[in-house]
Amino acid sequence: MHCPFCRHPDSRVVDSRTSDDGLSIRRRRQCPQCNRRFTTIETASLSVVKRSGATEPFSREKIVNGVRKACQGRPVSDDDLAVLAQRVEETLRASGSAELDAYEIGLAILGPLRELDEVAYLRFASVYQAYNSLEDFEAAITALRAENEEAEARRAAGQDEPADQGTAAAE
């Protein structure tokens, strides 16, 4: 790491800490030449492979901007969008892949977006799941209704847990 003050090609790490989100490391460094200290932040890079084949660095901001369009006119705050983008990034990093297809990122957004707002989910899904007709929308809405009714029936019966977890806990 070059010193930002004197451009000396080396520096010594004085202190290392994990950042708040746990996805980066903050390091305090000291230059052996001028003895000045500076901070660096290190992150593992994620690359996005676009449809054109071009590769660019992953950006949470692009997720927020894309989802913001789907959430237009919906009761979704900027904080909600930031949390969604963080959840998506954590999911993508957990996959272990350093290069991700842009389509995979769109699909990774669907789950958290559905939990956040179902109308925004349908808007976003219409692009990433290539809804071509009204029947596609009707099928998606029918599936959402069925899952909501099933979840409501479980809540009414006092079964908040999925069935296989509940049986394991009873044993």
Largest sheet: 3 strands, antiparallel
**How many β strands by DSSP?**
6
Order of helices and strands: EEEEEHHEHHHH
Number of helices: 6
Query: Approximately what portion of the residues adopt beta-strand conformation?
Result: 15-25%
Number of domains: 2
What Rg do the Cα atoms give? 22 Å
Secondary-structure class: alpha+beta
Strand order of the largest sheet: 1-2-3
Shape: elongated
Q: Taking all residues together, what is the mean pLDDT?
A: 86
Uncertain segments? 163-171
Q: Give the termini separation.
A: 56 Å
Relative helix content: 40-55%
Brief overview, please?
With 171 residues, the chain is α+β, with helices and mostly antiparallel strands. It is 50% helix and 18% strand.
